């Protein structure tokens, strides 16, 4: 009786275990060790004060994920479930407490506080009476008809009292006693000429006392020397008699220091650089103020009405101008607007130079005495 092993071999072949497939490759990839590592991610704080760092961005997939054959291992009861990484959203970070997504907090820089404006001194100007005034835009040199080649000084002036003019070529002012000292007294001696009180008078230097400009260059005549020697100095002096015999007479002076320029027609005109007023033992340097004009004090009432708009403040257009900004003197306005300007800015709105002080100037009306 023979024995058949066919069924046994069939059963053995049916229940034979197969080799397990190799595990799938990991889902991460190694980068080139020579490449530069990315900078560390900034840390953020959640609502509980913990520092959370953003997860690194997922690497780009250079090849497709491996295919997994689930049917091959189904009969062997071997299941394979690949590990799935947590989702990553650019620009967000995950709160580990309540599993919510939050936007990153943008921290804006704190604005730097502006320094306080420097204090601008506000003071009243002292009123000084000028007995004689030389109109500096009228200073000229006229040819001397009796002495060819020489020139004589001429200008227009106003005087409230009688006095005298002293014409000096190439002179300087002493710092101690404010007197005018000629630099070339032998070649150009000072010339003293009396005058009477009046307005809009024309002065002309006497013939024979002028100067020959042919010995000097135009550059030497147009500006003072390094020793402060001016080509032309005009000294106007008034002497006021005292009220009693015990008092000394009052001597007031206005000193005009100028250079000489040649015009296109060949004539010479004066270029006034400085005007000084000596009054009651004090020295004052005169400057023009843009916007304040006292020329209407000698005019009629109709001229005051016509020019009333020029006397109003350029800011509020209602109050009269009585305050000037120093030292540039580019703007005159009322005292109230000057106070507001002092707290808003310390620079002139015209030239943007720093304002050192504010000077209050009271302009007299036409019915007041000069």
UniProtKB/TrEMBL annotation:
GO molecular function terms noted in the UniProt entry: ubiquitin protein ligase activity; zinc ion binding
Family: Belongs to the RING-type zinc finger family. LOG2 subfamily.
Domain RING-type intervals: 313-352
Pfam families with a match to the protein in the record: RNF157-like_N (PF26192), zf-C3HC4_3 (PF13920)
Pathway: Protein modification; protein ubiquitination
Catalysed reactions, as listed in the record: S-ubiquitinyl-[E2 ubiquitin-conjugating enzyme]-L-cysteine + [acceptor protein]-L-lysine = [E2 ubiquitin-conjugating enzyme]-L-cysteine + N(6)-ubiquitinyl-[acceptor protein]-L-lysine
Protein name listed in UniProt: RING-type E3 ubiquitin transferase
This protein's UniProt keywords: Lipoprotein, Metal-binding, Myristate, Transferase, Ubl conjugation pathway, Zinc, Zinc-finger
Biological source species: Cardamine amara subsp. amara
Broad enzyme group: transferase
Positions with biased composition (Pro residues): 54-67
């Amino acid at each position: 009786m023979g024995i058949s092993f066919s069924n046994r071999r069939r059963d053995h072949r049916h229940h034979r275990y197969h080799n397990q497939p190799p595990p799938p490759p990991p889902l991460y990839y190694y980068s080139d060790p020579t490449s530069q590592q990315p900078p560390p991610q900034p840390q953020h704080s959640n609502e509980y004060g913990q520092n959370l760092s953003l997860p690194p961005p997922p690497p780009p997939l250079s090849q497709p994920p491996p295919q997994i054959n689930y049917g091959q291992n189904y009969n062997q009861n071997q299941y394979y479930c690949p590990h799935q990484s947590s989702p990553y959203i650019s620009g967000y970070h995950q709160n580990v407490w309540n599993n919510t997504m939050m936007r990153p907090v943008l921290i804006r820089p704190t604005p730097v506080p502006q320094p306080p404006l420097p204090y601008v001194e506000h003071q009243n100007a002292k009123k000084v009476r000028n007995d004689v005034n030389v109109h500096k835009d009228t200073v000229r040199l006229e040819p001397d008809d009796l002495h060819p080649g020489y020139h004589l000084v001429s200008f227009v002036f106003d005087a409230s009292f009688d006095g005298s003019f002293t014409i000096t070529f190439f002179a300087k002012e002493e710092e101690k006693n404010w007197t005018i000292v000629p630099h070339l007294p032998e070649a150009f001696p000072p010339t003293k000429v009396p005058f009477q009180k009046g307005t809009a008078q024309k002065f002309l230097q006497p013939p024979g006392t002028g100067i020959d400009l042919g010995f000097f260059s135009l550059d030497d005549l147009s500006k003072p020397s390094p020793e402060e020697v001016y080509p032309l100095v005009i000294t106007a002096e008034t002497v006021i008699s005292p009220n009693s015999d015990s008092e000394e007479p009052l001597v007031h002076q206005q000193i005009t220091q100028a250079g000489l320029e040649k015009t296109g027609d060949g004539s010479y005109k004066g270029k006034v650089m400085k005007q000084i007023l000596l009054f009651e033992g004090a020295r004052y340097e005169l400057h023009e103020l843009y916007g304040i004009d006292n020329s209407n004090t000698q005019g009629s009432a109709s001229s005051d009405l016509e020019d009333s708009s020029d006397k109003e403040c350029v800011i509020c257009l209602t109050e009269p101008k009585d305050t000037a900004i120093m030292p540039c003197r580019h703007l005159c306005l009322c005292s109230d607007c000057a106070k507001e300007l002092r707290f808003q800015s310390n620079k002139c709105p015209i030239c943007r130079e720093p304002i050192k002080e504010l000077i209050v100037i009271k302009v007299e009306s036409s019915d007041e005495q000069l």
